[in-house]
Design brief:
By secondary structure, this protein is α/β, with parallel strands linked by helices. The chain contains 16 helices and 9 strands. It folds into 2 domains: 10-167; 175-426, P-loop containing nucleotide triphosphate hydrolases (Rossmann fold, 3-Layer(aba) Sandwich).
Length: 457
């Protein structure tokens, strides 16, 4: 390339450049880093140049990174200098970003490649300038020019900036929550489980943990998210059949009868589902990470991960006590949610006391209470023998980083077709429900023994 030729990102294509501009708006720290070496004219397309220029101008004037809402206002009000075609292209591009129609899979590649490209251009400029300085033997100045160029575009992220990142706190979209499919639960956790968040379902054995996880995965699929479901107890075909039933409402026992009807229904689902089966205790969080990496390399954009269930993963580090191993497993799952920028749902089993409880609270969690500390949202499922007969039960919201917790919701749960519905919140608190249940049990025992004594007479 001669000094007269203008460097361009055109060789990477339109899709690459659109992803880059998307990231400049989405990621403040990356934008701050690359802005030192970025030239608007590196972009091949005019509408991307205009879009990026508006971001940079706003940052320079207000020292704050624009939010999605702010950017929408800017693009409505400040494009008067552009022709109608460019206005339309810029606004259409932003609309596609806002609706998540522009995927940022391969985010790390786009960031690294763009930054390397821009830094090289700055270094070339410095070297061309140094040639002229060399004629005058200005060695100190040459060293200064080269060193300054090398410093540009280095990682300058000191963390979340309280002032610069002000707008980010008010963006619900920043979490990009995936719905639970339950209105009353979504209402209290700001739309569902968000990116980089860990959700845990706690229940005794045989209560429906796996069914609940399938429900959550199915809701993500219907929302257009790609789901990776790891199963460590059940066969992948069993899990797939449960998804069939959950999505189509065809009872599990009738799936073979309605095979064609099921296929017609599921082929229209926007999201993609990968079910990966591992033997119990054979897979660790690192094994799951490696599998997710391979999927990402195949351009599979992971929208949600489900692990059924965390307690039976193999710990990456063997420790003396099981509770410490479990704690590490859940910490690793939380780290995976952060690394792959998606929500992760898993499940945990209660101890024996959970089998007898009307409402399962945190004290019934099995082995490692510390695994609750890293989770963002925890709910428990309790169903007595009578509940199973009437397809009823209760959900208790044990932990909620994004809203209220300690709430009890009645549920309808039909395991014959993987249907789980959350009803309006109970007026009683969890403690009131527990007390009420204890009184009911006492009353039943009294009636039972009264009949026994009467019969003996």
């Amino acid at each position: 390339m001669t000094s007269n030729e203008k460097a361009s990102l055109s060789k990477y294509g339109k899709d690459f450049q659109e992803k880059l501009c998307h990231l400049l708006l989405l990621d403040r720290t990356y934008c701050d880093q690359i802005i030192e070496v970025f030239d608007i004219e590196f972009l091949e397309l005019k509408y991307l140049q205009v879009f990026t220029k508006k971001i940079f101008e706003y940052k320079e004037e207000y020292s704050i990174h624009p939010s999605f809402k702010t950017m929408a206002t800017i693009l409505r009000a400040s494009l008067d200098d552009e022709n109608e075609a460019i206005k339309r292209q810029v606004r259409d591009f932003f609309a596609r970003i806002y609706k998540s129609e522009i995927s940022i899979d391969g985010e790390d590649f786009v960031k690294k490649t763009s930054l390397d490209f821009c830094k090289k251009q700055k270094l070339k400029e410095a070297m061309i300038k140094s040639v002229k300085l060399l004629q005058n033997s200005s060695f100190d100045e040459i060293a200064s020019v080269i060193n300054d160029a090398l410093k540009l575009g280095t990682d300058n992220d000191a963390g979340y900036d309280y002032i610069k990142d002000f707008e980010e706190r008010f963006q619900i979209k920043a979490r990009n929550p995936v719905t639970t499919g339950w209105k009353y639960i979504d209402d209290i956790c700001l739309g569902g489980l968000g990116q980089k968040e860990l959700g845990v379902v706690i229940a005794p054995t045989g209560t429906g943990k796996s069914m609940a996880l399938v429900h959550l995965g199915a809701q993500a699929l219907l929302q257009g998210k790609n789901v990776v479901h790891y199963t460590l107890e059940l066969a992948s075909t069993v899990i797939a059949s449960r998804y069939d039933s959950c999505i189509t409402k065809v009872p599990l026992k009738d799936l073979h009868t309605f095979k064609d009807h099921i296929y017609d229904k599921i082929r229209d689902v926007e999201g993609k589902l990968i079910i990966k089966e591992y033997p119990t205790k054979s897979a660790s969080p690192q094994v799951i990470k490696n599998h997710l990496e391979r999927l990402r390399q195949r351009n599979f954009d992971v929208g949600m991960v489900i692990v059924d269930y965390g307690d039976i993963l193999r710990p990456s580090i063997i420790r003396k006590e099981k509770r410490h191993e479990l704690e590490t497993i859940y910490e690793d799952l939380r780290a995976l949610a952060y690394e792959f920028n998606c929500p992760i749902w898993t499940a945990s089993q209660t101890n024996r006391s959970g089998l007898e409880k009307a409402v399962i609270t945190m004290d019934a969690i099995s082995e490692a209470f510390n695994k609750c500390f890293v989770a963002d949202f925890i709910f428990t499922i309790s169903r007595s023998v009578e509940d199973k007969g009437t397809n009823t039960g209760r959900i208790f919201v044990a932990k909620n980083r994004n809203g209220p917790d300690g709430l009890v919701f009645p549920i309808n749960m039909d395991t014959s077709n993987v249907s789980l519905k959350v009803l309006r919140q109970l007026d009683e608190s969890a403690s009131e429900v527990i007390v009420k249940s204890a009184k009911d049990q006492k009353k039943l025992l009294q009636e039972k023994y009264k009949k026994f004594v009467t019969g003996a007479k």
